[in-house]
Structure prediction request, 160 residues.
Amino acid sequence: MELCQLDHPPLIETVFDEYVPVTITWPDYHKLLDIPLYVRYEGAGGLLEMKFHPDSSRLIEVVLVNAPGVRREHRCLYPAATHVAVTACLSARSGGLPGLFGKLEVTAFDDYMVLAVESAPPLSWVGTAPVLFGLGESRQVVALCVQWEPSARDLVLMAG
Prediction:
């Protein structure tokens, strides 16, 4: 995945609950008439589904289906982010093909939940709250983090 520029920051909807830990939805998801491109990440952290618009390849929904292997960090992440209107897109390097990719690690910080989809750590964060994208050395998206309130964090962690 790589970043693609947006004209303005989107109104991103985030829902946390005890059954499906987090669902993140971009406005284009509700306008979609075709079947989205689907990418799945699985690992010790759980199962993550990502849906991309079939025409623009832009990310339109992220669903953390389950997270049995959440790693808890009792501190804030405080990601220093470059605040620009971006989203993730399927890149030419991934072939733009849906399927099963990579592994998933989920880390619960006090202020953010981090969904790492590559083993390389994020070197920088880009985006606007509540969702930031972590970029690796090659400027590819290696993680995303979603901001949460203590009540949402506690709900998700108690259910796991």
About this structure: The two ends are 28 Å apart (CA to CA). The CA atoms of residues 43 and 103 lie 5 Å apart.
